[in-house]
Amino acid sequence: MKTPRIPLFRFLMVWLLGATIASAADQQLLVAMLPKAKGNAYFLSCKEGADRAAAELGVELLFDGPTETNAAKQNEIVENWITYGVDVIAVAAENKEGLSTALRRAQRDGIPVVTYDADALPDARSFFVNQATPQGIGYKLMDEAARICGEEGEFAIITATLTAANQREWQRHVEARLAERYPKMKLVAVRPSDDLKDRAQSEATALMSAHPNLKLLMALCSPAVPGAAEAVKQSGKTGKVKVIGLGLPSENRRYVHEGVTEGVVLWNTVDLGYLAIQTAVGVARGTLKPGATTFDAGDLGQVEVAGDNVLLGEPFLFTADNIDDFDF
């Protein structure tokens, strides 16, 4: 049994950890939410939904993470939360294997764990809030790339890091779809961007120089999509080298309208953050248990539960025709 928390101690610890409190009052549950990088626009949009869910459910939300992607820092934050005694943890794991040890310890100490966006090892959490199946994402990206390229030619991938579990899984399905459907297309390189737009821009510029016949850049992390698009634009290759990827509409709107970026594949990130907190609280309160096939997720209604995955839905393609309809 966890030692009861003292409200003043909670306030001081939260302040020292640099986290954000969703409610000033001492609520029934303290939910800790860990992004890969707390300054990343993708995760800030997740936090918007998380804040809304926390307010609806009457819980206290701590939102903290590394300033940049850093697996070791994620471990440190989880260890601090275990010592403090939060009630439940929702985490987007930068390194699946590396973070799972700390998450297992949290569970042994009576703190339920759910993951969102990027999974940990299955025994280190109760449920994974899955924004879309890895296969659905990989296939959607590859099918769009093939359509844009006329099903032939060279393309390259820019990812966040070579160790990011979700990105490795998406890439695996991209390559599987490529091998299955598109024999005249060739993946010539995969480059990391450290989840930074400037690094993605540099990598994209280098790729276009090294591969003069390159027809498309596929970005697997949100900062890399506008980074690759800016590289194409500055190189004067708009129309010759196309860009697609997983990203936020707000960060890519102008590139889509300029014809640099053909389309952006994603899901509603605000809804992902909302569903992550709904799921975390459901596990903590016992309203979501192993074996469930559906889950009542507040404003999202009944969502599907497939095994230990709580499913947000299928990926969505933002294009010039619809991107202005979305403000995240």
- Largest β sheet strand count, sense and barrel closure: 9 strands, mixed
Can you list the strand order of the major beta sheet?
1-3-2-4-5-6-14-13-12
Order of helices and strands: HEEHEHEHEEHEHEHEHEHEHEEEE
Based on secondary structure, the structural category is alpha/beta
Beta-strand percentage range? 15-25%
Q: How many E-type strands?
A: 15
- Write down the CATH topology of the largest domain: Rossmann fold
Distance between the termini: 41 Å
- CATH superfamily label of the largest domain: Response regulator
* CATH secondary-structure class of the largest domain: Alpha Beta
Number of domains: 2
Unreliable spans: 3-9, 19-27
Function: Part of the ABC transporter complex LsrABCD involved in autoinducer 2 (AI-2) import. Binds AI-2 and delivers it to the LsrC and LsrD permeases.
GO cellular component, one term: outer membrane-bounded periplasmic space
Domain Periplasmic binding protein: 31-286
GO molecular function: carbohydrate binding
Write the layout of secondary structure elements.
Elements: H1 7-17, E1 20-21, E2 30-34, H2 41-57, E3 60-63, H3 71-84, E4 88-91, H4 96-108, E5 113-116, E6 127-130, H5 134-149, E7 153-159, H6 165-181, E8 185-192, H7 197-210, E9 214-219, H8 224-235, E10 242-246, H9 249-257, E11 261-266, H10 269-285, E12 294-296, E13 302-306, E14 309-311, E15 316-318
Parallel strand pairs: 2-3, 2-4, 4-5, 5-6, 6-14, 7-8, 7-9, 9-10, 10-11
Antiparallel strand pairs: 1-3, 11-15, 12-13, 13-14
Helix pairs in contact: 2-10, 3-4, 5-6, 7-8
Domain Periplasmic binding protein: 31-286
Protein name: Autoinducer 2-binding protein LsrB
Subunit structure: The complex is composed of two ATP-binding proteins (LsrA), two transmembrane proteins (LsrC and LsrD) and a solute-binding protein (LsrB).
